[in-house]
Design goal:
- With about 250 residues, the protein is α+β, with helices and mostly antiparallel strands.
- It has 2 domains: about 190 residues, BirA Bifunctional Protein, domain 2 (2-Layer Sandwich); about 35 residues.
- The protein is built from 5 helices and 13 strands.
- The strands form 3 sheets. The protein has a 7-stranded mixed sheet, with helices on both faces.
- Helix 2 packs across helix 5.
- The longest helix is centred in the C-terminal third of the chain and has 20 residues.
- The protein binds biotin.
- Biotin (BTN) binds next to helix 1, strand 3, strand 5, strand 8 and strand 9.
Length: about 250
């Protein structure tokens, strides 16, 4: 399918749309390493054969049913140490789009999984190419389950838009909306309005301020998510002490 994005200023104005690909993130990463790429370029495929997830995981997506794409941004205004701001902005943008489509409530499971109730509908893999202390290229890989209804039994808890809403969606329409929302959030970030991004991230954070059970170092404990640190660590109150967790240090 030939994808196109029409309602944005720069995101998705150029699109490389390929029927099959191993991984849109790998393709984008090679492209950025080998040439100067215009900000806003999107690589999208109908059939991603070897999708990559967070380190150590893969992203499975049935051909022609879902959105799997990578967007290249050049947030030169962001210090490398603040790169988690981009994860926040992108996560919120996906929530914005899903809320608009469904009028339901989606949540961000820290750091940037997108959940509906206790099931995962979308995953984000951001790979930054750094230069000195700035981000030269940020490769933002997004996989969203749209029309798939059969999932591999081994996947923990997948869900799709079709399963939630009982109807099928036009993939390009959803892509267009997501790009619009990403652009809006990116412009907020670019104008340094971090308080808006931080506030909306917490408002949409899964299990924020709820007492829930977690585990770390093989031990189970009750904790309350209080927020995220400046650089993106999860802050959890455990027995009235705030503990900081890195990705993979805590299990939900
Ligand atoms: C995760 O939840 O672990 C992140 C999943 C990210 C999947 C997307 S699909 C498009 C892009 N290309 C990839 O190989 N991965 C990302």
């Amino acid at each position: 399918m030939k994808h196109s994005v029409s309602s944005t200023l720069f995101i998705g104005k150029s699109i490389i749309s390929l029927e099959q690909l191993d991984s849109t993130n790998s393709f984008a990463s090679n492209l950025c390493t080998n040439e100067d790429v215009m900000e806003g370029l999107i690589i999208v495929t109908d059939w991603q054969k070897n999708g990559r997830g967070q380190p150590g995981t893969s992203w499975q997506s049935e051909a022609y049913k879902n959105l799997t794409f990578s967007l290249i941004l050049q947030p030169k205004f962001l210090d490398a140490k603040n790169q988690f701001q981009l994860n926040k902005a992108i996560s919120i943008a996906i929530i914005d789009a899903l809320n608009e489509i469904t009028h339901l409530s989606f949540k961000i499971k820290w750091p940037n999984d997108i959940y509906y109730n206790h099931k995962k509908i979308a995953g984000i893999l951001i790979e930054n190419q750094l230069q000195n202390n700035t981000i030269k290229n940020s490769i933002i890989g997004i996989g969203i389950n749209i029309n798939q209804v059969d999932f591999d039994q081994n996947l923990p808890n997948p869900i799709s838009l079709q399963q939630i809403m009982n109807k099928t969606y036009n993939l390009n329409t959803v892509l267009d909306l997501i790009c619009t929302k990403i652009e809006q959030r990116y412009l907020i970030l670019r104008s340094q309005q971090y308080d808006i991004i931080n506030y909306d991230y917490l408002q949409n954070l899964y299990q924020f301020q709820e007492k829930c059970s977690y585990s770390a170092d093989g031990k189970k404990f009750d904790g309350i998510i209080m927020g995220v640190s400046e650089y993106g660590k999860l802050l959890v109150s455990v027995n009235n002490t705030i503990k900081e967790f890195n990705f993979k240090e805590i299990e939900f």
